[in-house]
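Summary for the steering committee. The consortium agreed at its last meeting that each partner would contribute one worked example illustrating the joint modelling workflow. Our contribution is presented below. We chose a case with several input lines so that the handling of multiple components could be demonstrated. No manual editing was applied between input and output; the record is shown as generated.
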Amino acid sequence: MKEIHYQAIVEEVSEMCKRANYDLGDDVYTAFKKALSAEKSETGKEVLTQLIDNADIAKAERVPMCQDTGTAVFIVELGQDCHIIGGSLIDAINEGVSKGYGEGYLRGSMIYNPLNRKNTGNNTPAIVHIELVEGSELTLHMTAKGGGAENMSAMKMLKPSDGMEGVKDYILSIVKVAGPNACPPLVVGIGIGGNFERCTYLAKKSLFRSVGERNEDPAVAELEEELLNKINRLGIGPQGMGGSTTALDVKVEVESCHIAALPVAVNLNCHASRHQTTTL
Amino acid sequence: MQKKITLPLTDADLDSLKAGDRVLLSGTVYTARDAAHKRMTEQEKEGIPFPIDVAGQVIYYTGPTPAKPGEVIGSAGPTTSGRMDLYTPRLLEKGLKGMIGKGYRNEEVKAAIKQHRAVYFGAVGGAAALIARSIKAVEVIAYEDLGTEAIRRLTIENFPVFVINDVHGGDIYEQGVAQFRQDH
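What follows is the complete predicted structure of the assembly.
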């Protein structure tokens, strides 16, 4: 049994929050450069140039790339032979978020209650999903998920008879409706299957994968490529002002579901696809 | 095509600006987002005037990150404007001449932009560290208790925006997408 101390998690989470907001990942940065060379719209090129400059400034000056420093979302892979000591895992994550967002001059965007809307002041609570895995390691995957793109996300329980075409049409319709609001170029996260709540989790989970990384299942990988191509033909472009880069990538996760069901969830991510992983 | 404009916007500026134009703005703008718009509107119904005279002014929809010591402001990119649509026609009626944000406006707002001769600018969503460099001074004007959502007066210099909706009914979200769409 491996023991991991509460405080070690606090420190690690705090650093992850800062890094996520200051250091745009190489995967996204490379995708910006690739998009800039392929983009047909002059306006779109100007937007992509600003985004590259912005990422450079954020990294060099240790400031957030976006003022929306996001909801802190964690997927925790907790080894079943790992024991957290000194406090609870959830408390440690929340304390780490509070510390990181405070020390890092990151914006607190969370409110106590959607109906009375008072800011908690430290960006807690984090949204934490725990997956129990074999082994004795604790792996933390974190994303700082922006509100604009999250607001344009959606899920639908399709009919099995809607089939593959129904799934594709639905995904495209959500990207179209989102247009400029979701801060394109997007990373489009898709869950297909599971049940009502599992499907949306799959869509979110897909966004933790690096831009450019395909699903291991060749058929799903092919669907990701096809959707990326179709989305980029919509013409929405960088920031929705027209162009050939509407999405940097599409991620699809597929799981089993009920014979009566065909759930599809589309979790949109803005171009600031911020994700961090660390293992304790 | 890039234009430089010093605020406040003149009638000539408003006539000349066309959807899709790239503009560098200098002068004064006020920040306000969801909670500030809601409070201004609710207070007006109770007979309390707006804390800023919006006539001739430009509002920037942003909720900046906290400023680091020695810095004027934190990162300060645009937030989604559509959430302010409910309140915007009243502000335009009161003489508001410009808005900076990102994303769609509804039909009512677009009609009010034409009717009251105003302009909707889009800044690049997410380019918050870059945009912060064009903000030279900041002063909290009202609703300090709202924190990041307080109303601030910003002095800006060469703040980069695009014209989204102009006084002539132009809309770059419609025109630009129509130009590049390949799915028909």
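Chain A is about 40% helix and 25% strand. The helical segments of chain A are 6-22, 26-38, 42-61, 89-103, 147-151, 163-178, 196-206, 218-232.
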